[in-house]
Specification:
310 residues, alpha/beta, six-stranded mixed β-sheet, 2 domains, Rossmann fold, 12 helices, Alpha-Beta Plaits
């Protein structure tokens, strides 16, 4: 299939992966647009690493298909040279040093930038002449982050790239990613459990749960799909009649209830008259609430709206 600018960066259709009798991914469909930072979320064991491995030709789907820039990735040099996969626990030869890993990457990735790599080495204070197997876990992660950023691949997959990094180093990664992404737009997919830490980076949200894609939409749209109403419990209960409740807390006479559905102008006026206030729902809280239990039908915006009207 030819690659055109109208093709998404990633297209997945009916993709299924089974290990023996265990189904990890069950006929999932989604697209990731070009030129976005996409957050890939889900609990441990939901298939995030498996999915990225299939997309980068390091694993095979049981059925269905996946395309990168309109082409199948497996044994396809045209596609493979355009992608980079930074995975948790990446293995290197026993005698490999960071400088060897970077030299190899420079040969493989057409858009590799030596200046950016050198700056990142300095930023992360990485000892490039120490064997990688002797590095700390955080330093090992820094090697992968440097390759992922300096490759400037057209699509880069980061699988839990921050393991072992302290808060300062993680923020350094986020800052460098955002700065270079702004100057050199490409598609980035980040698998992470630290949703709130990367919430300001991501533009697209993809959530796996129980072998399915349960959320697939723009981050801004998702943020607007719930609101927390706070005030006297009786007034809150009256206001939320007919809405689907995601979470409820109570402190004395005050209730805090998170419900699906954005508020219109009339509802906001009614809320003010009732002496109630609203609080935004963080992306992490919303994703956690939506995946805490079986919630069929929440994979599309229309389904979420319907849930809010019930």
């Amino acid at each position: 299939m030819s690659d055109t600018v109208t093709d998404p960066a990633v297209r997945v259709r009916e993709l299924t992966k089974k290990y023996g009798r265990t189904t990890v991914l069950d006929a999932i469909d989604f697209d990731i647009p070009r030129g976005v930072i996409c957050g890939l979320f889900g609990r441990n064991g939901t298939g995030k690493t498996t999915l990225m491995s299939i997309l980068t030709a390091q694993n095979f789907a049981t059925s269905g298909h996946a395309e990168i820039f309109g082409g199948q990735p497996y044994e396809n040099p045209r596609v493979l040279e355009r992608l980079c996969f930074v995975r948790e626990g990446q293995r290197y030869p026993d005698d490999a040093k960071p400088k060897h890993a970077f030299a190899t990457a420079a040969l493989f990735f057409p858009n590799w930038n030596d200046d950016l790599a050198a700056q990142l080495i300095e930023d992360f204070r990485l000892p490039v002449n120490t064997r990688i197997k002797k590095l700390s876990r955080g330093q090992h992660s820094a090697v992968g982050i440097i390759i992922g950023l300096a490759s400037r691949a057209e699509i880069t997959f980061f699988d839990e790239p921050y393991l072992g990094l302290d808060a300062v180093a993680r923020q350094l990664f986020y800052d460098r990613l955002l700065t270079d992404y702004a100057d050199h737009p490409r598609t980035v997919v980040i698998s992470s459990h630290l949703i709130d830490e990367i919430a300001d980076l991501i533009e697209q949200v993809l959530v796996l749960d129980d072998t399915k894609v349960v959320i697939d939409e723009a981050a801004d749209d998702l943020r607007n799909r719930a609101v927390t109403v706070v005030g006297p419990e009786a007034a809150v209960d009256e206001f939320i009649v007919g809405r689907e409740v995601l979470h409820r807390e109570r402190l004395g006479p005050v209730a805090s209830v998170t419900v699906l559905g954005a508020l219109n102008d009339d509802e906001r006026q009614a809320l003010a008259r009732a002496g109630l206030t609203t609080m935004p729902v963080s992306l992490q809280e919303l994703i956690v609430r939506l995946t805490q239990g079986p919630r069929p039908g929440l994979s599309t915006p229309s389904d979420l709206d319907a849930g809010a009207q019930r």
